[in-house]
């Protein structure tokens, strides 16, 4: 084994990047090139001592500026997961399983606690938990038994193998995609270059390959726009009405991401020499953006009115709502879509007294049911609860009776 391999075998194989390198093996190369041995928070004092013994250098204190990394595992709040697969793409050892638009989960026995999956999550549903009892960490105290040291070494080797297999798989997939792009470019250029001389044929192949690369970038930009639009609409439906201040802030961020993705797509579409895109999608995007702005202005105004904000603020929000309504009308006119056939439905006014009577009826029914489930409830308490329920039912019946 080379010195780099010996050093890499002592590192915890979390591939977390806290040392400033994209993985444990690049840090091993950095140590060989002269970097200090105290830049690995997951390894801690045990790894520093092992590296010092291997390299015959003094033991250093852990560089605390790089943070701490106690034994931990990632945990996904599955009820909040939207299935975006961003955490799956970020995990360096394929310890997260799931599929697009489906729930994801973490394989605790495989997770090394690198926390690289936390930042990419767009809905913040991933958190780091302490390592469960009985689970062996990749590193431990200096006084660990020989069996524990062997088990930790085996776990590090296992994590390294998963990391290397994942990198090999990603490399194969990328090579396969590149080969497919080149094959499509060759098929597209073959009829045109059949009668050309070798130089012109080579130029046509280069142009076709560039066109295929631009087409792949354009497809990716369209996917990014679709994902950001779907995430924005899903958040609008999931948040309450009116949304809280934090939810409004998140909506603004999502809308900015959606607009940035649209701008990137527009730049790519303008640079592609293919047939020009139809104007309808851009107009549809403007219409959707106007609808989102109107919904946000309406929510802000309702929230201010509920909180009894100052009249000046209410007036400003009302003017912003009117501007958003005008912008929506203009977007609807520019979209050239047929106006919706609206049918006004007259609703009965809400009877506040009837609502109070029904609320009392619900409370009386729930109270009686609760007392009946108890074995030690006094009979006089049950009689009072029944009388309360009968009185509530009578009042509701008298109120709604013609």
TrEMBL record:
Gene3D superfamilies for the chain: 3.30.70.20, Electron transport complex subunit B, putative Fe-S cluster (1.10.15.40)
Family matches, as InterPro entries: 4Fe-4S_dom (IPR007202), 4Fe4S_Fe-S-bd (IPR017896), 4Fe4S_Fe_S_CS (IPR017900), Elect_transpt_cplx_RnfB/RsxB (IPR010207), RnfB_subfamily (IPR050294)
Record keywords, A-Z: 4Fe-4S, Cell inner membrane, Cell membrane, Coiled coil, Electron transport, Iron, Iron-sulfur, Membrane, Metal-binding, Repeat, Translocase, Transport
UniProt keyword Transferase, yes or no: no
Region (Disordered): 152-191
Domain 4Fe-4S: 1-57
Domain 4Fe-4S ferredoxin-type: 72-101, 102-131
Segments forming a coiled coil: 251-374
Skewed-composition ranges (Basic and acidic residues): 152-185
NCBIfam families: PRK05113.1, rnfB
Protein known as: Electron transport complex subunit RsxB
Record organism: Pseudomonas serboccidentalis
């Amino acid at each position: 084994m080379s010195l780099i391999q010996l050093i890499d075998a002592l590192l915890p194989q979390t591939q977390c990047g806290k040392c400033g390198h994209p993985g444990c093996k690049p840090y091993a190369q950095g140590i060989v090139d002269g970097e200090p041995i105290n830049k690995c928070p997951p390894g801690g004092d045990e790894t520093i001592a092992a590296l010092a013994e291997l390299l015959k250098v003094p033991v250093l204190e852990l560089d605390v500026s790089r943070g701490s990394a106690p034994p931990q595992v990632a945990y996904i709040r599955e009820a909040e997961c939207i299935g975006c697969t961003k955490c799956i793409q970020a995990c360096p050892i394929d310890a997260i399983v799931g599929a697009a638009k489906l729930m994801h989960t973490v394989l605790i026995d495989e997770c090394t606690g690198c926390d690289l999956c936390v930042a990419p999550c767009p809905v913040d549903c991933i958190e780091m938990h302490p390592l469960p009892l009985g689970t062996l960490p990749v590193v431990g105290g200096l006084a660990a038994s020989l069996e524990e040291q062997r088990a930790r070494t085996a776990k590090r080797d296992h994590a390294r193998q998963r990391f290397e297999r994942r990198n090999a798989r990603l490399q194969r997939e990328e090579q396969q995609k590149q080969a497919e792009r080149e094959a499509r470019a060759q098929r597209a250029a073959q009829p045109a270059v059949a009668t050309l001389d070798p130089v012109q044929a080579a130029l046509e192949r280069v142009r076709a390959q560039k066109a295929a690369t631009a087409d792949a970038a354009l497809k990716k930009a369209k996917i990014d726009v679709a994902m950001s639009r779907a995430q924005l609409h899903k958040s609008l439906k999931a948040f309450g009405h009116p949304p809280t201040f934090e939810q409004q802030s998140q909506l603004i961020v999502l809308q900015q991401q959606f607009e940035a993705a649209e701008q990137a797509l527009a730049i790519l579409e303008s640079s592609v020499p293919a047939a020009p895109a139809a104007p309808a999608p851009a107009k549809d995007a403007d219409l959707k953006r106007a609808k989102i702005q109107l919904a946000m202005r309406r929510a802000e105004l309702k929230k201010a009115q509920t909180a009894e904000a100052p009249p000046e603020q209410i007036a400003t929000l009302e003017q912003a709502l009117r501007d958003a309504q005008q912008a929506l009308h203009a977007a609807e006119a520019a979209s050239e879509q047929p106006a919706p056939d609206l049918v006004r439905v007259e609703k009965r006014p809400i009877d506040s007294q009837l609502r109070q009577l029904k609320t009392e009826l619900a409370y009386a029914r729930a109270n009686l049911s609760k007392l009946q489930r108890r074995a030690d409830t006094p009979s006089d308490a049950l009689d009072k609860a029944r009388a309360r329920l009968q009185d509530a039912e009578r009042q509701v019946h008298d109120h709604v009776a013609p």
